[in-house]
Amino acid sequence: EDKVVQSPLSLVVHEGDTVTLNCSYEVTNFRSLLWYKQEKKAPTFLFMLTSSGIEKKSGRLSSILDKKELFSILNITATQTGDSAIYLCAVLRGAGSYQLTFGKGTKLSVIP
Amino acid sequence: ETGVTQTPRHLVMGMTNKKSLKCEQHLGHNAMYWYKQSAKKPLELMFVYNFKEQTENNSVPSRFSPECPNSSHLFLHLHTLQPEDSALYLCASSQDSGSLHFGPGTRLTVT
């Protein structure tokens, strides 16, 4: 059975701090790992990672995948209150599958 | 609002009711999904349709019945639900099996 484990489950930081969110996985025939941000309702897409060691960046957010150790990290620098959300990690199986397995998420709270 | 819309946004129903959730995507994608999100549990895939054909059905009870009349519309028909079915039901679409675009969800409460 596919498994995605995120840590920590919740995190409280002050504005300006840097945070690192972790995601480890066990999945049959891995294809990609995806990060989503969920504020109130719909998760919104952040990154899709397929290759090991290649960092993806979007503003203050960045993410990298390690396919040997089966994990990914999501970094947020200079956090702002608007970064408060649940961050979801998900893994996608190989070609032909639409099975996306999600972790429980990390709830990030950024306080002023 | 995103390119994926869902109605209704909130629904309260009794265990003997029949209701339907509706999803529409305006992104030209060929795959549509129903996910269930319960408190303190990961998002659970329920159904996937690719070009109107159901490709995945993750052991979902028969009281949930999906319908995909075309690649832009997806329904979830609900019948004799249980209180434990109360959750946020999220519709999503994708092009092939790429990144998902989620709708705002329907918050369902079964009384």
Q: Could you walk me through the main structural features you see in this protein, from its secondary elements to its overall organization?
A:
The complex is a heterodimer of chains A (112) and B (111). In chain A, the strands form two sheets. In chain A, strands 2, 4, 5, 9, 10 and 11 form a six-stranded mixed beta sheet that branches. Chain A has strands at residues 3-7, 10-14, 19-26, 30-38, 43-49, 56-58, 61-66, 71-76, 85-93, 100-102, 106-111. In chain A, 0% of the residues lie in helices and 60% in strands. In chain A, a hairpin with a 6-residue loop joins strand 9 and strand 10 (100-102). Chain A is an all-beta fold. The mean pLDDT of chain A is 93. Chain A contains no helices and eleven strands. Chain B is mainly β and 111 residues long. Chain B has no helices and eleven strands. Chain B has strands at 4-7, 10-13, 18-25, 31-37, 44-50, 53-57, 64-70, 73-79, 87-94, 101-102, 106-110. In chain B, the strands form two sheets. In chain B, strands 2, 4, 5, 6, 9, 10 and 11 form a seven-stranded mixed beta sheet that branches. A four-stranded antiparallel beta sheet of chain B has the order 1-3-8-7, with no helix packed on it. Chain B is globular, with a radius of gyration of 13 Å. Chain B starts with a strand and ends with a strand. The model of chain B has no long low-confidence stretch (mean pLDDT 90). Chains A and B meet through strand 5, strand 9 and strand 10 of A and strand 5, strand 9 and strand 10 of B.
